[in-house]
Write a structure and sequence with these properties.
Layout lengths: L5 H25 L3 E5 L4 H7 L11 E5 L6 H4 L8 H4 L14 H9 L2
Antiparallel strand pairs: 1-2
Amino acid sequence: MAERDESENRLWATRSTALAGMTLMHAARAEGLATCPVGGFDGEALRGEFDIGDGYEPVMLVTMGHAAANARDTNTPRKFRRSVDDIVHREEFEPAEAELDDGVVAESYATQ
């Protein structure tokens, strides 16, 4: 088996970390905890603050805890999402042109 280069290893490590993070978030939700993935952080500062060794590269943070009773996301309508039929393809891949009502999309973001 051919060895992968550093950039391909980093890509696969990031994908694996994202999947592990998603699994952690689903498990936490099942236990009644709220979570949020964080990707925009200063990795070097994080390494220094938590004394993370050179053999590790932070690629994701996950906040976790009990949501406040009046947390904004528990009282805010969901943002616009495409229907399952727009994104799931059964038997063969034939992307359909989404019929989006710009007013619905704009209105869903206006409530944020």
